[in-house]
Amino acid sequence: MNFIFVGMNPEQQLTALRNELREHNYNYYVLDSPTITDRDFDMKLKELQALEEAHPEFYDPNSPTLRVGGEVTKNFETVKHEYRMYSLDNSYSKEDLEDWEKRIKKQVDGDVSYTCELKYDGASMSLTYENGSLLRAVTRGDGFQGDNVTTNIKTIKSIPLKLKGDYPPKFEIRGEIVLPFDGFNKMNEDRIAAGEEPYRNPRNTASGSLKLQDSAEVAKRPLECLLYSIKGERLGITTQFENLQKAREWGFKVPEEARVAKNIDEVLEFVNYWDVHRHNLPYETDGVVIKVNNLQQQEELGNTSKAPRWAMAYKFQAEQVSTVLNEITYQVGRTGAITPVANLEPVQLAGTTVKRASLHNADQIEKLDVRVGDTVYVEKGGEIIPKIMGVDLALRKEGSSPTKYIETCPECNTVLVRQEGDAKHFCPNEENCPPQIIGRIQHFISRKAMDIEGLGGETVALLVENNLIHNYADLYELTVEQILPLERMAQKSAENLVSGVIASREIPFERVLFALGIRYVGETVAKKLAKHFKGIDALMNASEEELILVDEIGDRIAQSVVAFFNSEENRNTIERLKTSGVQLKISEEQLAGQTDRLLGSTFVVSGVFTKVSRSELKKLIEDNGGKVSSSISSKTTYVIAGDNMGPSKRTKAEGLGISIISEDDFLAMIS
Ligand code: AMP
Ligand code: ZN
Fold first, then answer.
1. Distance separating alpha carbons of residues 294 and 533, to the nearest angstrom
2. Binning pLDDT at 50, 70 and 90, where does residue 581 land?
3. Which residue has the higher pLDDT, 353 or 361?
4. Is the CB of 176 under 6 A from ligand 1?
5. Sign of the torsion angle spanned by Cα atoms 566, 568, 569, 575
6. Dist. CA 150–CA 135, nearest whole Å
7. 228 in contact with ligand 1, CB cutoff 6 A
8. 158-167, 262-271, 648-657, 660-669: lowest mean pLDDT where?
9. Ligand nearest to the CA of 84
10. Residue 383: what pLDDT?
11. Residue 421: exposure state from Cβ atoms within 10 A (0-12, 13-18, ≥19)
12. How do residues 407-421 score in pLDDT, each as one tens digit?
């Protein structure tokens, strides 16, 4: 037994050893300055393991021994984010930033300063801590909900399982999971030595690691988590820069490069410096994130449907290389849209091997005058698929002739059409063009749509090729006996497939509507339509005029919806989905709590509130049929004013004769 334990009971020993190992982890992984050798650390960890085995009654879900992983997750649970995880708007020039500053100054009073941070290129992560312990780790997912990957995240040693200092009782902290170059290269050396394909790039490897089923496998990967933002109620923090400092004090790894800039010129200094020096950083970055420093001003600015108005990403210039174009092939998407693809001589670009690039459409090919055999410039920025930017004419081979765009579908030979105003050619053979049939069903089962477990894109193709299904309604009639004879299909997988299909009958109407694959009806539009029409019958019978009356639904969407439901085949499919028990109207629970009381009124919310949070307030407005807007105009009906409402907002509202009401007035309005 270790001499320092003399006089301690087992519980005290466990606590002492756990605390000591936590401190060593922190020194090594967060501060990069270990105070003991790796060997001593391993011995102590083994000692703790033995002690825990002998005393299971003192189990600690956040013990340092859990860092090695071992727990296996078959299905990651979906968790709704308490605070939505937004995307960021992008800027590329000084002018973009100046325009952004102008928009900010219209909406907030007083001086505005900015925190500049590096934009780490990895996978976003939301961590929730309660009473100083890690409670949950959730991926960004679609921003509204993500996957619970806590077991895997616990193996990342720079993420504290227990906090230090004066942390608040409950908060959420966000960061980026990255795989530093060193560790990434080491992993690849091992893979090559073992005769395996090396990983393509650190970013995808990091994000792929989060969803591995075996946490012991995750533990082997040298992942890190770099933190950049804290969310919570009443944290007593007033600036973003302080957010970073606090996070550091509580034991998180927060890179030290961040600076406060007093104006856009200082922001640009930061950007220019890191555009050059980022190549010396141990991990990948793809830009700088600039945030309004004052959190009260951030609140005032709020968010668009996609991104916060108080933050802006500045993207570094994408990297460019040149290579030879070997062949142009054509892909048919689920809507019949044709995309020309450049097949390239493989080339290294921004850490990945590029073999294919998008050529977008016929006009683009014509504009660039790109020809097979040409040497072309390829560019890649962030997650965008590589693009062909131009041709090196000096290297053009003699006797080459301009590219002739295809006239018939490469899959079904139907003559392609191109409608007025469309950039793309389409294969009009919706009913019988194989990639369209398969693509529609693949979209239907995809994660953001029906999320059918046990069924993947390749199996869909297999089912279609074997004539077992022709459209998504057929899925609900599949039987285990029918599927079993397929290649590589075991009894268990066949059963999982069928039960996955049955389970999808619980997916709410708004997602079913998105799954149908109506052109231009994405997730957000599907939500709007579901909320407005409440069920498929009303939507099916709506005219273009009625559709346009719905907020944010324009001509193009309205026409597409009407056309979809005009098709006899689509109406049949919907009837069959209905018979199969798929949700084709919004549920009772969703209906409850929703009223029309605020219909026709537009609200602007300003200041800090005591009874409900700002986001609750906005939800209440929308649930009761009202609209939320971020800036005061003649269209505003009410301004709900909390503490510290900006004086210029007040003056503007008064000038326009808009009623300014309190939180209580509002709550009375809807009760
Ligand atoms: P995008 O995915 O291009 O919309 O950019 C938004 C993402 O940038 C966020 O979801 C974060 O994962 C990531 N990000 C990286 N570094 C930062 C940072 N310092 N502040 C905020 N977001 C960051
Ligand atoms: Zn076709």
1. 41
2. very high
3. 361
4. yes
5. positive
6. 8
7. yes
8. 648-657
9. 1
10. 42
11. exposed
12. 999 999 999 999 887
